[in-house]
Write a structure and sequence with these properties.
The chain has two helices and five strands, in the order αβββαββ. It is an alpha+beta fold and about 110 residues long. It has a five-stranded antiparallel β-sheet with strand order 1-2-3-5-4, covered by helices on one side. It is globular and about 40 Å long. Bound molecules: guanosine-5'-monophosphate and zinc ion.
């Protein structure tokens, strides 16, 4: 399958890994929108949140918690975003959650 993030998971395309476990991978976004900008994704390919089962959703949220603590975001806070489909401006069709922090983010949500 011609999926950019599957290639990163397979190690065919390099990335800066932040955290990995059996079901999830977290790495730094190549075009960061904040001092900390990490992508959290399931190792199993699925297009977006609509395809996630409960076990996957739970594993992803646990990794979001882990990344937030590891990156020092727990005290001052952070934002999680998962763009879904056309109106959500999803550009890579492998489910991923953006973890953004390390500065005061704006109040804009869209
Ligand atoms: P989306 O727009 O689908 O929500 O987010 C895709 C994200 O993937 C973007 O923030 C973009 O910067 C990031 N991205 C695209 N290609 C690569 C890549 O090759 N490596 C990494 N680390 N991030 C990427
Ligand atoms: Zn994929």
């Amino acid at each position: 399958m011609d999926c950019l993030f599957c290639k990163i998971i397979a190690g065919e395309i390099p990335s800066t890994k932040v955290y990995e476990d059996e079901h999830t991978l977290a790495f730094r976004d190549i075009n960061p929108q904040a001092p900390v900008h990490v992508l959290v994704l399931p190792k199993k390919h699925m297009a977006n949140l609509l395809e996630a089962d409960g076990e996957t959703a739970g594993a992803l949220l646990r990794t979001v918690q882990q990344v937030a603590k590891q990156e020092g975001l727990a005290q001052d806070g952070f934002r999680v975003v998962s763009n879904c489909g056309k109106n959500g401006c999803q550009s890579v069709e492998h489910l991923h959650i953006h973890v953004l922090g390390g500065k005061q983010l704006t109040g804009e949500m869209g």
